[in-house]
UniProtKB/TrEMBL annotation, chains A, B:
Residues 294-458 form the Acyl-CoA oxidase C-alpha1 domain. The keyword Flavoprotein applies. Belongs to the acyl-CoA oxidase family. One of its GO terms (biological process) is lipid homeostasis. GO terms for molecular function: FAD binding; fatty acid binding; pristanoyl-CoA oxidase activity. It comes from the Eukaryota. It catalyses: hexadecanoyl-CoA + O2 = (2E)-hexadecenoyl-CoA + H2O2; hexadecanedioyl-CoA + O2 = (2E)-hexadecenedioyl-CoA + H2O2; (2S)-pristanoyl-CoA + O2 = (2E)-pristenoyl-CoA + H2O2; tetracosanoyl-CoA + O2 = (2E)-tetracosenoyl-CoA + H2O2. It comes from Rhinopithecus bieti. GO terms for cellular component: peroxisomal matrix. Keywords: FAD, Fatty acid metabolism, Flavoprotein, Lipid metabolism, Oxidoreductase, Peroxisome. This is Acyl-coenzyme A oxidase. Oxidizes the CoA-esters of 2-methyl-branched fatty acids. CDD domains: AXO. The active site is at E443 (proton acceptor).
Length: 692, 692
């Protein structure tokens, strides 16, 4: 049991402001405070509150509603805010090790304020920090304090450049970094556009008298920190305006024979001796690969968590709007809140459940990653560590697509569900959509990444089929596959909606679905190969109809499984079991329902009833979750200042808030500055016709 | 047979610029010129070329890549451009009557240049013009020339205001327009924010000693055209920044007892005599309703056409990019164009087919609307005219959702398929997405509109079930339903992919699907009512799972049917039959495949093979259409100046175009203006910790 909140915690979990939303809030069957303490814990709630309060009190973070910020100004502001975050030092290195979940929590809090800030901070400190930490060695640790004091401002790039030994290497002990042509220039590097002084550059490593050793990371200075002018041989510039995240300066760089000292090589995976000989501590290529895959995961896990933030914010805005906006009704006189319409419920509430399920998953996957990185730091070269790297890679590669797409679709649904008001820039749904969008692309295009996950699963099936090997992985995400022949014999047996309102129903169906897709993909792949396709062609031809749905279904199953276990733990307070169970069931069944055609096709579903039961269960759960939706939003919504959306304010005074915000914008009631254009020089119809 | 293009037409249909796309273009099995002449006709091609050339030559329309336009500046520019369009007078009133399709063609050309321009022009001239034309009478025609000379600049609003007779009416002959409170203010009216001088205001009409006669349209002056200052009693302002279409000024207005003369009432549907008596030429309320429904359709049909434009532009950009962007390949050395990946094909090519099918549908529905409006103008009060109004209303109400969502999803897919380059603002995919987005919302939220269509179909089934009435409609879109009992007995019989590559297969399946959904919806609705739900509740409870898919499936069927008939006409040149047939089959089957779960659930599909055949047919058609995709793009893409996307240029010189555009932006290689912030005042870690 979670202890009741003491009197002193009224400030930690303040009551709702009174207002039109009271009626909705009163309907909930549980105490949102209890849920907050169960989900987050007091220490975490306090940590988030500290961050939000600091931002709210600091004029540098003041919101400027309706301001038309120029690109240059926005980038400056974001840079200054990033710097200020270091001054606050919300999370010391000791705290980070003690409570690792505070790392994504900090990023999420910054992301709730502004994605650009979160990403800029993340790229500079954590991605770079973790690159140095996981790929470098003792000699590179000197960079860590420089990051935090911003003596070195960093970015991180993976590219087609070459790092050649500088002949005679043993004398000068330098590499030469060189981009052969424009097409090899690296676009899109975050922080590179205007601010980075150093870059982690991945380049193909060539050493004397030896073949290429593939991509290795180097630290290369690209700008003079005193002047921010580029270093000799470096052409570095800004990509210009993007669809979103414009506080972040993405850049491009070309290197013309830039010399860097031998020690610039981040040498954990492989090093070059002063004499120019390549050495690697990993004898087993497969192990080395597994370990380096794990390193790729940290960016993807961070993106997963940022996508969840965007979804949470959008849900908070759209659900508060829907509970206060009234339209039509059973009679001419009585208008009802749009949230009362089953259509509005089914558009929004599955995404609320998704926000909860994916949030839980993102935390649990982050903890898995921490375990992996600790192994890395302690020099663990066991097979288990390598397997853990592969499994996390497979999970992270599919979780970024799932979360970024869910957020993208959810935000779009929120935008539309708020009608015209969702299209008003000040209400923030557009910013959320635009800032979330690159989550689908960076750190690997979603569709390309899914192939990593399907390849992982196919790679496990082959030894099973050929040698009877077991399915076993460190995190047990694939262990169920061991029973695949018997799972494939199962059928959907639920015949009433009442029996379907549980995530266990979806879990069973998902297990069947993953086994089915895995078998189908494997067969299709072999059939392609038998008919003469190369491995490359065969995989490409299987991906659309087989590999992609396999990877997504596997990841959805893992998310559902982890959330199901979480909400069914014995430590869940009895009063919270119902609401958490419904969230888990809604996410699971809604998500499953999008695969209904495959369930029928493979024979797991048959007859009209199966599809109907599933559909009706989702509808019923939407209606049940609706009754708790406002308190559920209370947990995921940051304070109004951070949420920054007039239609999403906690008071629910929709028209007051909206009119207040509209009228506060500059020049709203003024006539256009160009009004004389209107009254003079009336167009003479067809006066330019002769010019056609 | 279409005659070959004469020598003089080289300018009308110029050859492609030579470049990396040549290889792709050479693979096509048909002449794109022949397709252009067949699809558009020479006169239309010439008309579009005239418009594009005029814009390209006129400095007012010069593109300003990378410019950070302020809201105020963008609105001024858009206003001036709109004015200039009148000066060009591309389409005289006579031409409009002779070739009605030039009306949507003009709007499409403007929309290809900039959505804000198309919408501003459309709202001012056509929507207002058609309101006056279809709702007003002789006495209102004086407004028409004022529109074109911009003496009156117009907007159009539907609202909760009241129009009360001014007692004693017979003396002053005035109405009083009044908004009771803030909540009754009308938000979002296009052109109202800064420019409108007159508004068509829908208000509830009250006349002396009589009850309310419902919404009627009035022309109300809201600003002084000389000064652009608001008229007494009118509070009018600008909504502020939106997610897109920021060249258009959306506004809000409140009226405080504003007096307007009796003649301001647009009196075709109903009038008030000088003595204050309400009179209507329509005796039958159902007929009057049918006619007024038809009037609602013109906005929706225009939006359909604008959504198609956005989809076309996005396809042009993404497909040219995909044909030139190379990534990975069968060997380390050989990189292949991303369009060669089945994944990329399946992401994009169904939307290319959709652009063609929906484009054809939008033209044909526009012609239906012209027929209806001609009836209206000639005073046709027949039952057929009213039925035509209802049918067009049902088609338009579902076609706006289908087209706007297809465009929204297609553009997002294009954005993602172009990776980071799709996220660069200059490549225009973001603008297209943002400008298309309101198409899902204005003139009725998509989900709400679909209920109009499902209600129309349910309204036809009831008399059939009860009295054995026939399904008959003026445009024959529902006539097939007459055979619904036998259609429902049909099954999917196609067992090979080769037999499935035809839109006829999809047509048969769609007919079954619509019959199935109609029956299910009807039964569900009756079941709801029997269990005690009110009509309002019953309809809401059926909409998500039944009414919505019914409306969409019915409209998809209509689109597929019309495009199928179009491409199978005897006049189609033999060399074009293959490519047009494939486009038709791809759109039809891809669209159908999203209903696969319902096809299984209702028993039309059974066994693994049905779903597999459908899926494999879509894949096969994608691969076939890929070979023709570049010439197909040539037809829908405007000139580079209008398309305005470096990655989408016709030359296909991807890196050259992109680098050129990036480097041309201002300050790209300059250090940030705020560089001293970087080197001075380094953050002192934790220096603000005491403030937390």
């Amino acid at each position: 049991m979670v202890p009741p909140v003491e009197g002193g915690d009224a400030a930690l979990l303040p009551e709702f402001p009174r207002g039109p939303l009271d009626a909705y809030r009163a309907r909930a069957s549980f105490s949102w405070k209890e849920l907050a303490l169960f989900t987050e814990g007091e220490d975490m709630l306090r940590f988030k509150k500290t961050i939000f309060s600091a931002l709210e009190k600091d004029p540098l973070f003041a919101r400027s509603p309706g301001a038309d910020l120029s690109l240059e100004k926005y980038r400056e502001l974001n840079f200054l805010r990033c710097k200020r975050i270091f001054e606050y030092d919300f999370l010391s290195v000791e705290d980070m090790f003690k409570s690792p979940l505070k790392v994504p929590a900090l990023i999420q809090c910054l992301g709730m304020y502004d994605s650009s800030l979160a990403v800029k901070y993340l790229l500079h400190s954590l991605v770079f920090g973790s690159a140095v930490y996981s790929s470098g060695s003792e000699r590179h640790l000197t960079y860590i304090p420089k990051i935090f004091s911003m003596e070195a401002y960093l970015c991180h790039t993976r590219t087609e450049m070459f790092a050649n030994y500088n002949q005679p290497f043993s004398l000068v002990q330098e590499f030469i970094i060189h981009s052969p042509d424009f097409e090899a220039a690296k676009f899109w590097v975050g922080n590179m556009g205007k601010t980075a002084t150093h870059a982690v550059v991945f380049a193909k490593l060539h050493v004397p008298g030896d073949q290429c050793h593939g991509l290795h990371p180097f630290i290369v200075q690209i700008r003079d920190p005193k002047t921010l002018l580029p270093m000799p041989g470096v052409m570095v510039g800004d990509m210009g305006k993007k669809l979103g995240q414009n506080g972040l300066d993405n850049g491009f760089a070309m290197f013309h024979k830039v010399r860097v000292p031998r020690q610039s090589l981040l040498n954990r995976m492989g090093d070059v001796t002063p004499e120019g000989t390549y050495v690697s501590p990993f004898k087993d290529v497969r192990q080395r690969f597994g370990v380096s895959l794990g390193g790729l995961s940290s960016g993807r896990v961070s993106i997963l968590s940022l996508a969840v933030v965007n979804l949470k914010l959008a849900m908070a805005i759209a659900l508060r709007f829907s509970a206060t906006r009234r339209q039509f009704g059973p009679t001419e006189e009585e208008e009802i809140a749009v949230l009362e319409y089953p259509m509005q419920q089914c558009r929004l509430l599955p995404y609320l459940a998704a926000a909860y399920a994916l949030d839980h998953f993102s935390k649990s996957l982050f903890l898995d990653l921490v375990e992996f990185q600790r192994g890395l730091a302690s020099g663990d070269r066991s097979a288990r560590q390598a397997e853990l790297g592969r499994e996390i890679h497979a999970l992270a590669s599919a979780s970024k697509p799932l979360a970024s797409w869910t957020a993208q679709q959810g935000i779009q649904e929120c935008r539309e569900a708020c009608g015209g008001h969702g299209y008003l820039a000040m209400n923030r749904l557009g910013v959320l959509r635009d800032d979330n969008d690159p989550n689908c692309t960076y750190e690997g295009d979603n569709n390309v990444l899914l192939q990593q996950t399907s390849n992982y699963l196919l790679g496990l099936l082959a030894p099973r089929v050929q040698d009877g090997a077991c399915f076993r992985s460190p995190l047990k995400s694939v262990d169920f596959l061991d029973a695949y022949p018997s799972i494939l014999d199962q059928k959907f047996e639920v015949s009433s909606v009442a029996d379907c309102l549980d995530s266990a129903v979806a879990l069973a169906a998902y297990k069947w679905l993953v086994c089915y897709l895995l078998r189908e993909t494997y067969q299709k792949l072999n059939q392609e190969k038998r008919s003469g396709s190369s491995d490359f062609e065969a995989r490409n031809n299987c991906q659309v109809s087989h590999g992609r749905p396999l990877a997504l279904a596997f990841l959805e199953l893992t998310v559902v499984q982890r959330f199901h276990e979480h909400v069914h733990q014995p430590c869940v307070p009895p009063s919270l079991r119902a609401v958490l169970g419904r969230l888990s069931a809604l996410y699971a069944l809604w998500s499953l329902s999008r695969h209904a055609a495959l369930l029928y096709r493979g024979g797991y579903f048959s007859g009209e009833q199966a599809g109907e039961v599933l559909e009706n269960a989702v509808l019923a759960l939407c209606s049940q979750v609706k009754r708790c939706s406002l308190p559920l939003v209370r947990l995921i919504a940051p304070p109004d200042f951070v949420l920054d959306s007039p239609i999403g304010r906690a008071t629910g005074e929709l028209y007051k808030n909206l009119w207040g915000a509209v009228l506060q914008e500059s020049k709203v009631l003024e006539r256009a500055s160009w009004w004389p254009e209107f009254s003079v020089n009336k167009p003479v119809i067809g006066s330019l016709k002769s010019k056609l």
